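idk why but the lab printer keeps eating my pages so im just putting this in chat instead. protein + NAP:
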Amino acid sequence: MGKLENKNALITGAARGIGYAIAQRLAQEGANVVIFDLCPEEAGDEAAKAIAEQCGVMALFRRVDVSNYEAVQIAVKALSKELGGIDILVNNAGITRDKVLLAMSEQDWDLVLDINLKSMFNTIKACYRGFMKKKAGRVINISSVSGLMGNAAQANYSASKGGVVALTKTVARELATRGVTCNAVAPGAIETPMTASMDQDALKALIATVPMGHMGKAEDIAACVAFLASDDAKYITGEVIRVDGGIAM
Ligand code: NAP
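predcted complex ->
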């Protein structure tokens, strides 16, 4: 029997990349999974179907822009009714719009903060009452080593990911007596479509700073999230776990 049997997990930005690997891993542990993503319906349904077939769990796709407060409240309410509640919330959706601060537009600042940080306020708020009622719940937020160290040409991204750490610790404190944990995972350089679209010289320079000498895989992040979602991590809250080959040690 998997460690997450009979749990319902909501994972944002999970039609591909790290989010997809997380959805897949939680499903392998027995959880039913719901993917929120902005990809076309067909691709989202395909991703959910593949997970359901591989793992024998229920997997659903909902096309939701997680930066849209109202849309998230409506979608989570409907899901909670349909599934009987959310047990595990993984906030993974994120984007980059890299430029040195002097060249960064106000729009790119706002967009990155809305998708990477405000989205987590939206989803956590939507799940909050449900967690309190159940006196149980797991929130796992995907930050980044950029949020811990800062990174040139990523003022918007680093600020959003640093904000994720502060949000994580605050939610952990608010819900600690309710049996709900809230933790963050801070990935380093991971092989996904996001890093594939980076300037390749910048990527090479980044990999040169990794003590372990190579990029990580989406599965490395998923394994850490699965641990934090499980009962094995029941006494861990407000923690930030780096999965980064040593970049930010
Ligand atoms: P990715 O391959 O670009 O995947 C991100 C997913 O999020 C995409 O499916 C995207 O959908 C979705 N998404 C974007 N905006 C959304 C929105 N408003 N509402 C719903 N879904 C949305 O990225 P990744 O590399 O897997 O990264 C996943 C997370 O890990 C991000 O938070 C990222 O910051 C973090 N991270 C990644 C790395 C890395 O090296 N890859 C390092 C540190 C942290 P569409 O594109 O179809 O809209």
